[in-house]
Amino acid sequence: xxxxxxxxxxxxxxxxxxxxxxxxxxxxxxxxxxxxxxxxxxxxxxxxxxxxxxxxxxxxxxxxxxxxxxxxxxxxxxxxxxxxxxxxxxxxxxxxxxxxxxxxxxxxxxxxxxxxxxxxxxxxxxxxxxxxxxxxxxxxxxxxxxxxxxxxxxxxxxxxxxxxxxxxxxxxxxxxxxxxxxxxxxxxxxxxxxxxxxxxxxxxxxxxxxxxxxxxxxxxxxxxxxxxxxxxxxxxxxxxxxxxxxxxxxxxxxxxxxxxxxxxxxxxxxxxxxxxxxxxxxxxxxxxxxxxxxxxxxxxxxxxxxxxxxxxxxxxxxxxxxxxxxxxxxxxxxxxxxxxxxxxxxxxxxxxxxxxxxxxxxxxxxxxxxxxxxxxxxxxxxxxxxxxxxxx
Length: 392
Hints:
Elements: H1 5-12, H2 25-33, E1 43-47, H3 52-65, E2 70-73, E3 85-87, E4 90-91, H4 94-110, H5 117-131, E5 136-140, E6 158-161, H6 169-172, H7 176-183, E7 193-195, H8 200-208, E8 213-215, H9 232-246, H10 252-260, E9 269-271, E10 276-279, H11 284-297, E11 303-307, H12 315-322, E12 328-331, H13 342-347, E13 354-355, E14 369-373, H14 376-385
Parallel strand pairs: 1-5, 1-6, 2-5, 6-7, 7-8, 10-14, 11-12, 11-14, 12-13
Antiparallel strand pairs: 2-3, 3-4, 9-10
């Protein structure tokens, strides 16, 4: 009997798979058994704390408009795992997804390779893209860079490192230099690397690998870009520098069309019919950028927030930075085992707040700007509960 998509999800989220274990040994073993599909692919590899998903979305859109067959690997998903693996904007089918997941899991079991969820997904992605002969893979790291499963590739067309800030410090280090060193692990020998921050560690790693380091001026014109948010200026600058470095033949007209067509749901996404911003900011820097963009695009407008986050995030910095007197604030404990409880969020909130309950009603037509933010993992619940079309 054929395994279903839900069967594949059940396997991925089982206790044995659903954890993080950095390292390249396991993913290397399974890919070798699969014939090393990653070696047949041309990848643009993107790491960073914030912005890497936007950079990847921009790159994939431009390359698609240029006539390339583009594979995009990103995380996390909003609704379904399929969203993480796309060719020219089309997600892998349920049938292909489950087939690849079980093929790879069976092979791993036969050879006693204890793969994590992310390693299975990464192996699925490499095999699927190789089987479909994609021209370019836009490859987003999951966590860090140096020991991230995506870093099993031996070379790339170029690497891109976005803004680095404090996140996952328990795994990547507790200083920005340590975190940046982990991200710099994606720099490959003789392959160019594009950065937006002039950190000494990037220069040291690039020099050690004879890789050209390109430091961009993060001031690109975002007027043609479909994505909103002031922070997109830096992301767009990185993406354009990557295109200019690797595909200088792509004309500006094609690039501009690609910018108009970019889709990256739930990143400062505005839903007009609900007067609603949905944003996946989930660390202090992301929240700071969200606040700046709200002040820039919607000055003086009264705001209503629904906020929830994972308990391992730095909510004690995020909550005071985001909210101000006059905001209507709802905290939400969503259905994730690591969701932060409402009491903890309220204790660090400088203004009055309340809990979003199952029977809480929101009047989206009362003139307030509504903002859902705090964790990507929360957003699907709110989108479904309030019947919001995000055009994924």
